[in-house]
Specification:
Elements (H helix, E strand, L loop, with lengths): L13 E3 L9 H10 L1 H9 L14 H4 L2 H17 L2 E5 L6 H10 L6 E5 L5 H11 L4 E7 L5 H18 L1 H7 E5 L5 H9 L2 E4 L13 H9 L4 H17 L6 H14 L4 E6 L5 H15 L7 E6 L8 H6 L4 E10 L23 H18 L4 E8 L2 H22 L3
Parallel strand pairs: 2-3, 2-4, 4-5, 5-6, 7-8, 7-9, 9-10
Antiparallel strand pairs: 1-10
Helix pairs in contact: 4-10, 5-10, 5-13, 7-8, 11-16, 12-16, 13-16
């Protein structure tokens, strides 16, 4: 964020596109940035004249206002104190963002967080019922219009179970409904049953909803700091508003994606060397896939968890069709360390004695970027100073804005 003198207190995440210039001339990127300069200015102001009512996610102060956050934190505190299990019932954008944060940062063992309403498997649902038997359960049903099949019928199963175990009145206290205000079917059900009802903003799509009540309640239940997460998103918004278009990494990323698409690079891989980012990558895949995959257009988004996926997809990336580009998430400062111990056993890994896993992982990352670049895969790098809720908030807003800008350049709504 910027201090009173306009200096960054905590540096923002940044884009390194130096490896791209071997594939696209820097001048071409500069020209494209200049051509889209007016468009970028319009993007930054567009939520103020949101005729289609879809850009509410840009106004973090509105969707995560203090009064709402206080209500959420109070309810989350009750849940953490009383629940063995918290069930998040939702599909797609209704759980991906929250799940990304929870999987990356949850440290507390209680409550255990389970996910339902994201598939139609009887095996999966029966397993949920087995897991919650005899435990103290709270549930959050999240649905913008409550017309999607998976969360609808799974919530009915969970609701009936909780009413049988606790009675209707106590079950109602343990169920939180997050849906569209203004008379949606879920709001009506919440009124009838007596559930706490939280707003799923009408002008926010599911994949952009993580900074609203949709994402904030489950995240707060996990014990992750909402203030850090929200502060990170606001810091990235500040960066967007205070950085000239030609120097703006968010906009540069959007431009480069579209330039690579023109060159026939129609698959983008989000690659990372930290398994904690697995569910962030799932959120990212939905964000770009659902936003840009229209009118016969769009870049196909997918993700790789390295180093594991180097042993499955690494060969194709290195030597397959040259239709791919990669965006790497690079964590610059690891929060944890582990030293490889010395051992006299002849396992032939003694060259790594006393080396830090973090260092080994970083060397693998750097070697992979080089190998893929040398093999004809354009590689961009998003540098993340640390993996914290603050920087996760920055990442969410970075990619949301980049996706919006990229779609505008591509010509999709």
């Amino acid at each position: 964020m910027l201090n009173e003198k306009g200096v960054w207190i905590l540096k923002p995440i940044s884009l390194n596109c130096s490896n791209i210039y071997g594939f696209i001339q820097e001048g071409r990127i500069t020209r494209s940035m200049e051509e889209n300069k007016l468009l970028f200015s319009e993007i930054l102001e567009s939520y103020k004249q949101d005729k289609e009512q879809v850009l509410g996610w840009m106004d973090i102060d509105k969707i995560a206002d203090k009064e709402l956050v206080n209500i959420i934190e109070e309810k989350a505190k009750e849940i953490r104190e009383n629940a063995d299990v918290f069930i998040l019932i939702g599909v797609g954008g209704s759980n991906q963002g929250a799940r990304a944060v929870i999987k990356a940062f949850q440290k507390e063992e209680k409550p255990e967080i389970l996910y339902a309403g994201n598939n139609l498997s009887p095996i999966y649902m029966n397993n949920i019922l087995k897991q919650i038997k005899g435990k103290s359960v709270y549930a959050n049903i999240i649905a913008k219009n409550f017309a999607t099949l998976e969360p609808g019928i799974c919530f009915r199963v969970i609701r009936k179970y909780m009413e049988e175990v606790y009675g209707e009145e106590e079950a109602a206290r343990r169920i939180i409904a997050t849906g569209s205000p203004g008379g949606s079917s879920l709001e009506k059900l919440a009124d009838e049953k007596g559930y706490l009802f939280l707003p799923f903003p009408l002008d926010v799509g599911g994949r952009y909803s993580v900074m609203s009540a949709v994402g904030l309640l489950p995240i707060a239940v996990s014990g992750v700091s909402l203030s850090e997460l929200i502060s990170g998103a606001k810091a990235m918004r500040e960066y967007m508003n205070n950085t000239a278009a030609e120097e703006n990494d968010v906009l540069k990323y959007a431009v480069i994606r579209n330039e690579l698409l023109k060159m026939g690079k129609n698959i983008e891989i989000l690659s990372y060397f930290e398994p904690s980012l697995e569910y962030f990558s799932k959120w990212w895949v939905q964000l770009f896939g659902e936003s840009e995959g229209k009118d016969g257009k769009g870049i196909f988004p997918t993700a790789c968890s390295f180093s594991e996926d180097l042993h499955s997809l690494g060969q194709y990336i290195q030597s397959g069709q040259r239709i791919i580009f990669e965006t790497f998430l690079n964590i610059e400062q690891m929060a944890e360390h582990l030293i490889v111990p010395k051992d006299k056993a002849p396992d032939y890994f003694d060259y790594l004695d006393d080396k830090d896993f973090a260092w080994i992982n970083q060397m693998a990352y750097e070697a992979t970027v080089k190998a893929h670049t040398d093999g004809g895969v354009p590689c961009m790098i998003v540098n993340i100073p640390e993996l914290t809720p603050y920087y996760m908030g920055q990442l969410f807003y970075f990619f949301e804005m980049a996706c919006y800008a990229s779609g505008k350049i591509l010509g999709v709504n």
